[in-house]
């Protein structure tokens, strides 16, 4: 119980610095701006056609798209670039506890901050669409027009018929929230581990992780493996399995009639990847050479 309190105190100390950290403030401001820009297409369409949205649809149609997930997750590089926290309080924590407890506090902070960040995105999209939204758990006329007419594809809004036919807005939102959180959590774990291995290694690893998702676009996969256009479905399935970004994309999952990953398999993928990265951080911290600002030697 004592160690749990210590881990919580270390995580809280990281959160306590948010109010005076311009980097954190900028990260959340950019996230809100991204939410506005990415959801604006849906809102403009609803206004032009004098239709309304279900309150969660702006989030669903915005972050059901891999490019939107990627754009927001890149902000995690700004949010977590300084992890692990090596501020002036760390020597005090290291005297009162041990390395494992300290890294446990860092991990608790990463997990909590990631959830808070995704919740902030969800709330932002709901607030931005509140003027033309209702609360009933039913798909809107806006979603129906975007999906069944094909207009959604033309204006790059991922309103898919199979999503609307097989689920409802609330359940769809829960799955998208968990998938985006899983993707963000994996990136956060990667940033922490690589920063423990090498200064700024997390930034490099985060960029590579994001670039990997971009490169595994079905069209690029088809070109790499020489898959003809009439067989692009196989490239779509292949990229769905091997790309973390596609695992985080709701419509890139099997709904009973294709060979894409099932939702539980993507949750398992992100869960295992996150646990392995955090476990690697626990191992790495044993030999981590602490270097604090204002000190001449590492500790």
Describe the structure concisely for a colleague:
This protein is an all-alpha fold.
In DSSP terms, counting alpha (H) and pi (I) runs of 4 or more, how many helices?
16
What is the H/E string?
Answer: HHEHHHHHEHHHHHHHHH
Quaternary state reads: single chain
Strand content: under 5%
End-to-end distance: 27 Å
Mean pLDDT: 78
- Backbone shape: globular
> Quick one: biggest sheet?
2 strands, parallel
Structural write-up:
- With 299 residues, the chain is an all-alpha fold.
- It has 16 helices and 2 strands.
- The protein has a two-stranded parallel sheet with strand order 1-2.
- α1 (2-16) crosses α7 and α2 packs across α3.
- The longest helix has 30 residues, at 99-128.
- It is globular.
- The model is unreliable at 294-299 (pLDDT under 50).
Summarize the topology.
Elements: H1 2-16, H2 22-48, E1 53-54, H3 57-63, H4 66-73, H5 75-80, H6 90-96, H7 99-128, E2 133-134, H8 141-149, H9 151-154, H10 161-166, H11 169-197, H12 201-215, H13 218-224, H14 232-242, H15 244-247, H16 263-284
Parallel strand pairs: 1-2
